[in-house]
Write a structure and sequence with these properties.
Radius of gyration: 32 Å
CATH architecture of one domain: Beta Barrel
Helix content: 40-55%
Strand order of the largest sheet: 3-2-1-4-5
CATH class of one domain: Mainly Beta
Mean pLDDT: 85
CATH topology of one domain: OB fold (Dihydrolipoamide Acetyltransferase, E2P)
Largest sheet: 5 strands, antiparallel
Shape: elongated
Length: 217
C-alpha cells in the first residue's frame, strides 16, 4: 500500500511539474535570423497548437502559422511559432501576432553584426512531434550574457506554494476536528465489541467445560 501511495504522489508531482513547465513563461536570449509563414496540417499534436477558433474559422484541419527562426548564443537553432492565444488557455491574452511578427522581422541580424533579443514564450520544442514553443513577446537586450529574472514565475510559484500550504493546514485541521474523533469512536466501539465477544465466548467455553466434567449415567 505504501508503494501505491508513493507512486500516486510521484505521478501527480510529475504531471504538475510538466504542466507548470509548459504553461509558465520562459525567456530565451537569441539572435533572429528569419521569419516565415507556413500552412500547417494539424494531427495528433493539435493540442500543442493554439485553439482553432483563435482568429480562424472553427473546424479547420489546417491554417497559416507565423514562425520565427533564431540562433542561440551557443550556435544551436531554435524555431518559435507565433500564434494568438485569445482569451483561452494559457491566459496570455495574446492578440498581436501580426505586430509581433513585424517586430521580429525588424530585429533580424547576421552573425557578423548580431542583435540579441529576449523572446518570452511558453511551451516546448520537440522536433520528432513537430512541436514549437509559442512566442508571446520580444525585446532587444545588450548582449547574450544579460541576466533575466523570471519575476512572473517567482510570484506565481510563491502564491501556489502558499495556496498548497494553506490547503494542507485546512485539511489537517479538518481531519483533526472531524475525521479523527470519528475514527477514535469507531476504534473504541470495536474494542468494546471485541471485549463483549471475548466475554461471551469465555462464558460459553466455561459452560462447555462444565458439561465435559459431568459423569455419564
Amino acid at each position: 500500500m505504501r508503494y501505491a501511495k508513493w507512486t500516486f504522489w510521484t505521478v501527480l508531482a510529475v504531471l504538475v511539474f510538466a504542466f507548470l513547465h509548459y504553461t509558465l513563461p520562459q525567456h530565451d536570449i537569441v539572435r533572429i535570423t528569419g521569419t516565415y509563414e507556413k500552412r500547417v496540417d494539424f494531427g495528433a499534436n493539435s493540442i500543442f497548437w493554439a485553439s482553432p477558433d483563435t482568429g480562424n474559422a472553427a473546424g479547420t484541419v489546417n491554417r497559416d502559422v507565423f514562425f520565427i527562426q533564431t540562433i542561440r548564443p551557443n550556435g544551436k537553432p531554435m524555431v518559435y511559432r507565433n500564434e494568438d492565444t485569445g482569451w483561452g488557455w494559457p491566459p496570455y491574452f495574446k492578440l498581436d501576432t501580426s505586430n509581433l511578427q513585424a517586430e521580429a522581422a525588424d530585429l533580424i541580424s547576421t552573425k557578423d553584426d548580431p542583435k540579441w533579443v529576449v523572446i518570452t514564450h511558453y511551451g516546448w520544442r520537440n522536433e520528432f512531434l513537430s512541436i514549437y514553443p509559442n512566442a508571446v513577446g520580444i525585446r532587444p537586450v545588450d548582449g547574450p550574457d544579460v541576466r533575466i529574472i523570471p519575476w512572473v514565475n517567482i510570484v506565481i510559484l510563491t502564491l501556489l506554494a502558499l495556496a498548497i500550504f494553506m490547503l494542507r493546514r485546512m485539511w489537517l485541521q479538518f481531519r483533526e476536528r472531524t475525521i479523527d474523533p470519528v475514527l477514535e469512536d469507531l476504534d473504541e466501539a470495536g474494542d468494546a465489541a471485541r471485549a463483549r465477544a471475548k466475554g461471551l465466548w469465555g462464558r460459553l467455553a466455561a459452560w462447555l467445560v462444565t458439561w465435559r466434567g459431568k459423569p455419564r449415567r
